[in-house]
Amino acid sequence: MEPRIHEIPPEKVRGIFEELERYGMVNIEVENLASLFDDMLDSTEERLRYAREKLEEGNVDKAVLVVKDGRGILVVKIENVVEIRAELEDYGRLMRDWNIGER
After folding, report:
1. Alpha-carbon distances, residue 91 vs 1, 43, 62 (angstroms)
2. What radius of gyration, in Å, describes the C-alpha atoms of the chain?
């Protein structure tokens, strides 16, 4: 199955992350090229809190929801330095709630 990529307007990303747990977040990864701090975060809760901090501090360059093989992965790039990847079980609900579709 080919992946489907759904673009998300940057102005919606902060709101989505405020409610991310509603969509059955399975895992979240944060990669910050300017810091090693992200490597020291052990729990999902710590990584989510860190991701939310980075979203508040910086500007979202690009956000997409990649759907493949029944999985939804929200990918967010912040100022080409931070990349957040959150795997969601209920990505369909996220798409309905936030009016996200293929472009």
Report:
1. 17, 22, 18
2. 13
- Looking from the CA of 58 toward its CB, the CA atoms found within 13 Å total 20
Dist. CA 81–CA 76, nearest whole Å: 11
Question: What local confidence, expressed as pLDDT, does residue 103 receive?
Answer: 46
Residue at 86: amino acid letter: A
pLDDT at site 33: 86
**Which parts of the chain register pLDDT below 50?**
103
Distance CA 95, CA 6 (A): 9
H or E segment at 92? helix 91-97
pLDDT at 2: 86
CA-based nearest residue to 72, from 96, 55, 52, 53:
96
Residue ranges of domains in the chain: 4-98
